[in-house]
Write a sequence for this structure.
């Protein structure tokens, strides 16, 4: 059995975090190390997909739910405009291999594409 990801442990209440939104299949938390005025993570409850590539190919409807909740939280926590980042692979900065979307919003630097 593979070890639960940090996000599964948050969802199960083993690690404290503020869950800011939740649907049947997806939840959102504040990133512990924010890189933008609003920096939230939107995460499928299932930990079976390591990356957005796996999620898109196996369950595109669940990917659409991730994007819908990203829009919802960007509207609730900022003006509705947002940048969505999926770090994919260690070389791109992915550290948690339970797919998650970074929702960056607020007063973003227009030129920067960095998370
Ligand atoms: P990534 O590097 O794309 O895999 O993103 C993982 C993100 O999870 C990073 O931005 C971390 O700051 C964030 N993170 C790690 N641990 C926690 C935690 N306990 N609560 C909230 N965010 C976390």
């Amino acid at each position: 059995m593979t070890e639960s990801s940090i996000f599964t442990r948050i969802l199960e209440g083993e690690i404290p975090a503020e869950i800011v939104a939740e649907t049947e299949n997806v939840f959102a938390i504040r990133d512990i190390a924010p890189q933008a005025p609003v920096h939230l993570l939107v995460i499928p409850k299932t930990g079976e997909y390591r990356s957005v590539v796996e999620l898109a190919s196996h369950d595109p409807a669940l990917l659409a739910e991730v994007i819908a909740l990203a829009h919802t939280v960007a509207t609730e926590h900022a003006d509705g405009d947002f940048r969505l980042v999926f770090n994919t692979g260690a070389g791109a900065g992915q550290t948690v291999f339970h797919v998650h979307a970074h929702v960056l919003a607020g007063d973003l630097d227009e030129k920067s594409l960095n998370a």
